[in-house]
Specification:
two-stranded parallel ribbon; alpha+beta; seven-stranded mixed sheet
């Protein structure tokens, strides 16, 4: 077989044979080249490292930059707070006290001069300053059918129950000592024990028959109200009572700012604080003797501070001047803490209480 002869007997041309010899000497373009010593070293190190597997597309977390300015800002704010507390501690305490005016406080905390009440601002320095005024502070729940009453009838009964609280504790004439005719008209005239109480209480007040058990009254010759606003907080709840009656419970606190009737240039202001609980029954006239549009009184309680101590007179007698200092011997209570049970504090000496705040 010749140099230019293929295995099958065909022959190559001289040009093809010369090209083959040149490429054999120079090396083919796609022939593998032996790696250099540097490449062999890199490959050796890579083979020595453990296989970490492919990195997930959500697994990369960039390094967080270091924040140095935050600590400087915190330090600056802390310094400002300490400065405010040092310059005006009373204002700082007021900010926290106003958040929850019903919460109890430590006894014996005197009001600062800047927070004392004035004739223009009789509720200054008091938790009641943020309360609603008058009937607006007495909440009424949504009415639903109960017992013998439809939802509409329950709604009317709730409205009249609040009317009684307004007529007995907010009416300006009643507060000045007038007979509470509008409030009395809402009480079942067939409830004999209550009617006997009403007859006696206004004629001959006593510890048992004291009109203050149901009504708020001040003697105009001794005490006058400051301004036209009484602060209130509380509301009504209801459920089904005996014989299918609608039983309404009222728990409301009233705050009355008052001063001497003959104050003249003396503007000493005292806030009389009264919390009342009344349970009223709107009875089914087919089962209980009653008059339409009236309720029977199931029970009543009241707590009072800054309303006077001693023998009942039928009026609140707020202490002023030396009388006020004499009352400081009484038991300390927080009249704004509505979470506590009733003490049933009337005007007798052993039940007199001193308010830790007013």
């Amino acid at each position: 077989m010749g140099a230019g002869t293929e295995p099958d007997g065909s022959s190559r041309s001289d040009e093809e044979w010369e090209r083959f010899l040149r490429e054999s000497v120079a090396g083919a373009a796609d022939a593998p080249k032996e790696p250099s010593a540097r490449a062999r070293d890199v490959a050796k190190r890579l083979r020595a490292q453990p296989d970490r597997g492919p990195e997930g597309w959500r697994s990369y977390t960039p390094a967080r930059p270091k924040r140095r300015t935050g600590w400087y800002v915190v330090g600056l704010l802390a310094s400002l707070v300490l400065l405010v507390v040092a310059l005006a501690p009373g204002r700082v305490l007021d900010l926290f006290a106003d958040d929850d005016p019903d919460s109890p406080v430590e006894a014996g905390q005197p009001a600062e001069a800047g927070q004392r009440p004035t004739m223009d601002e009789p509720f200054r320095g008091s938790p009641a300053a943020s309360w609603a005024s008058g009937a607006a502070g007495i909440t009424v729940p949504e009415a639903q059918a109960v017992g013998w009453m439809s939802a509409a009838e329950v709604e009317r009964a709730l409205a009249r129950s609040r009317d009684f609280l307004v007529a007995s504790g907010l009416d300006r004439g009643v507060l000045r000592g007038e007979r509470p005719e509008k409030a009395i008209a809402l009480i079942n005239p067939k409830q004999k024990d209550v009617q006997d109480f009403l007859t006696t209480a206004f004629r001959s007040p006593s510890e048992k028959n004291d009109p203050l058990l149901l009504f708020s009254r001040f003697q105009p010759s001794r005490t006058q109200l400051v301004g036209d606003i009484v602060k209130t907080r509380g509301g009504l709840t209801y459920r089904e009572g005996e014989r299918g009656a609608l039983q309404v419970t009222a728990d409301v606190t009233f705050v009355y700012p008052v001063t001497r009737a003959d104050a003249g240039g003396d503007d000493e202001i005292v806030r009389t604080i009264v919390r009342r609980e009344l349970v009223l029954s709107w009875d089914d006239p087919d089962k209980v003797i009653t008059e339409p549009g009236t309720f029977s009184i199931v029970s009543n309680k009241y707590d009072m501070t800054n309303g006077g101590c001693g023998a009942p007179t039928g009026y609140f007698t707020p202490p002023f001047g030396t009388d006020r200092r004499a009352d400081e011997a009484g038991t300390e209570v927080d009249p704004y803490d509505r979470s506590t049970p009733f003490r049933q504090g009337g005007s007798s000496g052993d039940e007199c209480a001193r308010a830790t705040r007013s």
